[in-house]
Amino acid sequence: MDVFVIEGGRRLDGSIRVLGAKNAALPLLAASLMSDEAVTLEDVPDLADIRSMVRLLEELGCAVLRDGASATIRTRDDAPWHARYDIVRTMRASICVLGPLLTKRGRARVSMPGGCTIGDRPVDLHLRGLRALGATIELDEGDIVATAPPGGLRGARIFLGGNFGSTVLGTINVMCAAVLARGRTIIEAAACEPEVVDVARLLTQMGAQVEGAGTPRLVIEGVERLGGARYTVMPDRIEAGTLMCAAAITNSLLTIENCPLDALLAFWDRLEEIGVRVEVLDERDPLRATVRVSADRVLRPVQVTTQPHPGFPTDLQAQLMALLCLAEGNSIVTEKIFGERFMHVPELARMGANLYRQGSTVVVSGVRQLRGAPVMASDLRASAGLVLAGLSARGTTIVNRVYHLDRGYERLDERLGRLGASIERVDEKDLERPATVAVVAARASRLASA
Ligand code: EPU
After folding, report:
1. In this predicted model, what pLDDT tens digit does every residue of 129-154 receive, in sequence order?
2. Is the pLDDT of residue 90 over 90?
3. Which terminus of the chain is more exposed, N or C, with fewer CB under 10 A?
4. Which long-range contacts (CB under 8 A, 24 or more apart) does 202-210 make?
């Protein structure tokens, strides 16, 4: 297993381009299986989760041609209908083939995703929406088995609100299913996340009729078939936010290109309150802006509560918390989407952060400096928070289990390295040889004095 060895305290400098969004690319790939023709997606990041989705589509009878950052999906055989446990357990987002398979092939068998380190993560709302469209749903040996009625799914009025707001992948599943259903579907309390809008745009290019994407009310008129399309995945707002935190936590000046600023307004608002400057250099396309990020030495504490879009995204909570560890005073971070998503808290404490958690709230009392330590990544965004903490800490931080990070950030070590960070990917077995850490540290201090 790989680990990152980070020598903290180096300033970053230069320009970096945000890559395509994992959380858009996954459902976009899944939606492609509904087309009768080839669909080409551009700017598909090269990530472990994307490779799992490609493998799943191949098992489901699609040919997927990867060429650099593009992926062309073409259905060869539309008989398969089973997304097996072996794949689903490696990637929860496999659930987003449920709606497309059911509506296109009349039935779908998808292993029920289990809980994960950030919480229980039920799929009841997905199933409620599909049932409303006329599907019969049963649970068989741990699999969700969904069957469309004779003549196919039919449009309906559906309310998708739950105790924690709407559901992003649930909205996408029901929207995809409704696109090929007979008649009109109205989804009320739909998720407004930009990734839902991205999928709606692809579906529209394929010939679907979807109104209202990005608002809580979607109106979909079913069509008989979907055609081909060529579509560019939106830039990753969570990667962009993580890079902005990287600039701030290392007290650097970074230029970030292809930045979906328009999808990051709640996050930007908190950054400004903290004292991080975001200068917009080019905003002709607000979803692909160029910004320059810099921070004052003195960071101010803030209150932040995660919420469904357009509120502050849960996927940036760990990264912002790492930054707040260095603010002058007490910040309050409340998690309203995944109440248990605090795996980074005890690890940040190992680095000298002063954190007090009660239930789904953490009080962060800023300290002057974090100290390097071995820490354990436990989920994707927690890992990103630990990498950020390591970039600013004095001394060496070893982030274990970076395979979590690799699920959502493409070659983050190399890309941050190009900006001047001292971050090395090492096989954990080599760490047992003390020389490895010493060599990495020596290389870092040579670079620092160069
Ligand atoms: N929920 C239900 N019932 C459902 C579905 C969800 O109660 O049927 C609850 C969840 O337990 C949670 C809330 O509703 O409390 C929101 O969950 P949602 O369904 O919106 O999450 P998701 O669609 O499974 C996506 C992202 C997550 C991101 C969330 C929230 C993908 C592949 N995943 O998950 O991303 O945190 O939306 O924005 O798009 C990540 O990238 O690290 C990640 C976890």
Report:
1. 999 999 999 999 999 999 999 999 99
2. no
3. C
4. 202/28, 202/31, 202/32, 202/39, 202/41, 202/229, 202/231, 203/31, 203/175, 203/176, 203/179, 205/229, 205/230, 205/231, 206/31, 206/34, 206/35, 206/39, 208/179, 209/179, 210/175, 210/179
Q: Where are the domains of the chain?
A: 2-19+235-449, 22-232
Per-residue pLDDT at 438 exceeds 70: no
Q: Which residue has the higher pLDDT, 117 or 383?
A: 383
Place of tokens 């274990």: 400
3-class DSSP assignment, residue 135: coil
Q: What percent of the chain has pLDDT over 70?
A: 95
Is the pLDDT at 102 greater than 90? The verdict is yes
Inter-residue contact 423 to 6 (CB < 8 Å): yes
Please list every protein residue whose CB sits less than 6 Å from any atom of ligand 1.
23, 26, 93, 119, 121-126, 162, 164, 167-170, 191, 314-315, 337-338, 380-381, 408
Which residue among 47, 164, 167 has the greatest number of ligand 1 atoms within 8 angstroms of its CB, and so is best to mutate? 167
Assess whether 116 carries a catalytic annotation: yes
Nearest to residue 18, comparing CAs of 315, 288, 402, 292? 288
In this structure, the residue with its CA closest to atom 36 of ligand 1 is 315
Given the residues 96, 116, 176, 245, select the one marked as catalytic: 116
User: Which run of H or E residues covers position 413?
Assistant: helix 412-418
Q: Give me the pLDDT at residue 436, please.
A: 64
Mean pLDDT of the chain: 94
Q: Which CATH superfamily is domain 2-19+235-449 in?
A: Enolpyruvate transferase domain (3.65.10.10)
pLDDT at 115: 60
Cα 170 to averaged position of ligand 1 atoms, centre (Å): 8
Q: Can you read off the two tokens belonging to residue 245?
A: 């935190």
For residue 360, report the distance from its CA to the centre of ligand 1, in Å: 16
- Residue 61, pLDDT > 90, answer yes
If you measure from the C-alpha of residue 92 to the centroid of ligand 1, how many angstroms do you get, rounded to a whole number?
Answer: 10
Give the atom of ligand 1 at the shortest distance from the alpha carbon of 26.
Answer: 32
User: What's the pLDDT tens digit per position in 219-255?
Assistant: 999 999 999 999 999 999 999 999 999 999 999 999 9
Is the domain spanning 22-232 CATH 3.40.50.720? The answer is: no
